[in-house]
Amino acid sequence: MIKEEEISLNGLYSIFPLKKKIVFDVHDFEITFRYYDGDVPDFDVDIALTSDEMQFPVVLKPDIVDIGFFKFKNLYSSNYTLCVRYNNVEVFEKHNIDKDVTENIKLYDFVLIVKDTWNLSSDVDLSVSIINNEYGKPFVLHGRCLSNGTYSFTGVYPGEYTVKTNYKNDVLEQLVKIPAEYKKTVVVFPVVFNLTLNVYDSRGNVLDGAKVVLMRDGEETHSLTSKDGKVSFEIPPGRYKMMINYSDEGAVAERDINVLNDKSLSIVTVKEPVLPLIVLLSGVGFIIGFGFLSFKKKNIFLFLGCLTIFLVVLSVVSPWWEVNGCSSGNGKSIKTSTRLFLVPLKMITITSNNGVVSGDIDTIDDSFASVIGVIFILIVFVCFLIFFDTIFRYYQNKNWEFIFYLLELIVFVVILFVFVYAMYEFSNVIVGGLSGNGNIDVLIPGEGIYEKMSSSWGLGIGFYLILIAMVILFSAGFVYRKSRKI
User: Fold this and answer.
1) Tens-level pLDDT at each residue, the chain (486 residues)
2) What radius of gyration, in Å, describes the C-alpha atoms of the chain?
3) Do residues 301 and 389 both lie within one domain?
């Protein structure tokens, strides 16, 4: 470096130019940029130097650039800032260069394994990133999902990072140092959700004392339903296999449940309630008893009246409308059955998918439910009418016989007409008519997909039992009055 000054010499007023020569101590700065195993990165890398001690700071570029090698020549002894840019990373590091310096920069691979509170790999899609704040300007790297719960980061600059794991509104942060002692780092994501199950039998009655088992990747938890048929679990997000066992009957329901947030589900099992069996057996005993009494009294009309009441009561615990469908092919064998019951008022769909059985309670319109409630009241009313009509016939009370008989027929006709009309309106929205056949899209429980099934639908046995009861009542009354005239 040459510096020129003007000076006066020995008091002479003449001015002579003076030249002074100053020699600076300069150094070289070499940088190698590699992966930890020695391989050269296949992406572009930008390296530069700046110094705050410069009067007019400039950006210095390497004098020599080769594959993974950078060299700055003849640097004045000073404090410099090294800037390294690649991909989305921008690193600023301070260096004091007062001699020849060689810097080896190694990039590392980092694998993060996210476990849940069951010590299983996370079964849901997480947002996983690592954040660095120690090199001046913060930068964020996002992991690539290799498999459930395993995320890979490649070409990571060494340093201290914050691992940030997100799922919806839940965040877990944890500090790690790269390179780590172990190539793989495991973190536990402690998020759990509430799963509430309402368990019912095949008619929609709550099922208490059932054992509900949740299984996933070889781990399981279980609990018993309460008296109101409820059971709750706190479990990490994921896809679970649910199995419900009842007493010695084994599995009465089985399906997959995808838990991604707090969830409440209604599960219908194939467990048959005791009430229909009690009604059937009691009715048979009732008919046999009154049949014997009728034979002894030689009064067939007493038997027919009791038979009519039995059929009406049996209709209440029988389905009044049904849909049955099936689908096969591509290794699948799926069957579905939807039945409408009056007591309790529920529309139950039970689906079997390759032996896996589970059911749901379908939604019933409020106006339709109100109509069914009226029908149930009329059924109870007609039972009382038939009972008193039978008593009056037994005691041959002619004044009330015909009135009760006429009321019974009217109520039966009203029940049948109102149900057919209401069911037609309701089924027209669901499947397009009161009865028929065709292809219906059915939601497979636990799968979240619809399957097209060949189906048929129409009135159920409950409706026909009421119809048969009315025919028996009408025939009995007709024969009875004809016999009275004779």
Assistant:
1) 344 455 544 444 455 555 666 666 889 999 999 998 889 988 899 999 998 777 777 889 999 999 889 999 988 888 899 999 998 899 998 999 989 999 999 999 999 999 999 999 888 889 999 999 888 788 999 989 988 889 999 999 999 999 999 998 889 999 999 987 667 888 999 999 999 999 999 999 999 999 999 999 999 999 999 999 999 999 999 999 999 999 877 889 999 999 999 999 999 999 988 888 888 888 888 778 877 777 776 767 777 778 888 899 999 999 999 999 988 777 678 889 999 999 889 999 998 887 678 888 888 989 999 999 999 999 999 988 887 777 766 666 566 667 778 888 899 999 999 999 999 999 998 888 999 998 888 887 777 788 888 999 999 999 999 999 999 888 877 666 655 554
2) 43
3) yes
Query: What DSSP line would sit under 319-354, residue for residue?
Result: -SEEEEEEEEETTEEEEEEEEEETTTTEEEEEEEET
DSSP code, position 123: -
Residue 439 belongs to domain spanning? 275-485
- Do 157 and 179 meet the contact criterion of CB atoms below 8 Å apart? no
In this structure, the answer to whether residues 359 and 446 fall within a common structural domain is yes
| 319 and 354 part of one domain | yes
Cβ–Cβ under 8 Å, residues 364 and 344: no
Report d(CA 457, CA 340) in Å as an integer: 11
Strand (E) or helix (H) holding 315: helix 300-316
User: Which of 61, 62, 99, 96 shows the shortest CA–CA distance to 78?
Assistant: 96
Cα end-to-end distance, the chain, whole Å: 146
Signed CA dihedral, 335, 339, 344, 346: sign only: positive
> Of 107, 160, 161, whose CA–CA distance to 129 is shortest?
161
Q: Shortest CA distance to 78 belongs to which of 57, 54, 58?
A: 54
Backbone angles phi and psi of 23, in degrees to 5: -110, 125
Structural domain includes residue 19: no
- Based on the domain organization, do 303 and 379 belong to the same domain? yes
